[in-house]
From TrEMBL:
Protein name: Oligopeptide transport system ATP-binding protein
Domain ABC transporter: 5-258
UniProt-listed Pfam families: ABC_tran, oligo_HPY
Coiled-coil segments on the chain, per record: none
Membrane topology type: Peripheral membrane protein
Compartments it resides in: Cell membrane
GO MF annotations, alphabetized: ATP binding; ATP hydrolysis activity
Keywords: ATP-binding, Cell membrane, Membrane, Nucleotide-binding, Transport
């Protein structure tokens, strides 16, 4: 597979009255064409901010991308301004995003058809009649009943699941190369969530679209994702294929996340403690206060970069890396 997106050293900060928050700190990863990758971690670890940075949707002030590069199809997106013509053409056209809550993403004063039509006329330059035809067809593809009639409804007239189906359909309208799904099914009940996940999986496979799934649900990751990036305190602390991470998690935080997945007949094992403040964070491992493997060297030396273990597996855990060296 060809490389589609390469993020290198991405750092995003927010300036507050208490100090500078490094919400995303030196994050690097890649996405190949047609690949489904997962971005997992606790709330506040930087998952959503990293993806908003890729899309140039960070509000400035207070936020600012201060370092790094985001290369998409050979173009460094950070060279373009947030409202530049080049970025507006890529956003929604070549890269789409499905947000967590469709009621805050859809315009309550516009019909579904008009909102979908605007995407088509803006990016593909087609007339309103053809835009309506394509919009109704896409609503049909994402399982909206009676799509010709529903196209003229307003968002409040649809259920939560139907609104999210509209968002999925809208993200596919221009046949993008990549979709970012930011907790797209979190607010839905389990049945509707499963239906939407299957729909997204079918759609991205049908159109050979890459998908970045931002989630804290490891069950979703295990079922749909090829590779996983685990984030903690603004950094990627472990990455690898689903099989590698599930069979042999190298970072104690990843182990903790896996133990938090409900299993029949087993008690949940929570991760003790709280995530650290991202203001004036020390250079040592951010998971140190909660880590059961911590040793003296962890307190004295800076956290390692992502280091290769085997295959596609990388970790930043100093103790585990030293253990591999000793072996």
């Amino acid at each position: 597979m060809e490389r589609l997106l390469t993020v290198s050293g991405l750092t995003t900060e927010f300036r507050t009255e208490r100090g500078t928050v490094k919400a995303v700190n030196d994050v690097s990863y890649h996405v190949d064409e047609g690949e489904i990758i997962g971005l997992v971690g606790e709330s506040g670890c930087g998952k959503s901010v990293s993806q908003l940075s890729v899309m140039q949707l960070i509000p400035n002030p207070p936020g600012k991308i201060v370092a790094g590069s985001v290369e998409f199809e050979g173009q460094d997106l950070l060279r373009y301004g947030r409202e530049s013509r080049e970025m507006c053409a890529i956003r929604g056209g070549r890269i789409s995003m499905v947000f967590q809550e469709p009621m805050t993403s859809l315009n309550p004063a516009m019909t579904i058809c008009r909102q979908m039509g605007e995407v088509l006329t803006e990016h593909l330059g087609i007339d309103k009649a053809e835009a309506r035809e394509r919009s109704v067809d896409m609503l049909s593809q994402v399982g909206i009943p009676d799509p010709g009639k529903r196209a003229d409804d307003y968002p409040h007239q649809l259920s939560g699941g139907m609104r999210q189906r509209v968002m999925v359909g809208m993200s596919m309208l221009c046949n993008p190369k990549m979709i970012i799904a930011d907790e797209a099914t979190t607010a839905l009940d389990a049945t509707i969530q499963a239906q939407l996940l299957e729909l997204m999986y079918e759609m991205v496979n049908k159109y050979h679209t890459a998908l970045v799934m931002v989630t804290h649900n490891l069950g979703i990751v295990a079922r749909y994702v090829h590779r996983v990036n685990v984030m903690y305190a603004g950094r990627i602390i472990e990455s690898g294929t689903v099989r590698e991470l599930w069979a042999n998690p190298m970072h104690p935080y990843t182990e903790g996340l896996l133990k938090c997945v409900p299993k029949l007949g087993e008690r949940l094992v929570p991760i003790k403690g709280m995530p650290p403040s991202l203001i004036n964070r020390p250079p040592t491992c951010p998971f140190l206060p909660r880590c059961r493997l911590r040793q003296k060297s962890c307190f004295e030396e800076p956290v390692p970069e992502l280091t290769h273990v085997e295959g596609d597996h990388y970790t930043t855990c100093r103790v585990r890396l030293e253990g591999l060296t000793d072996d």
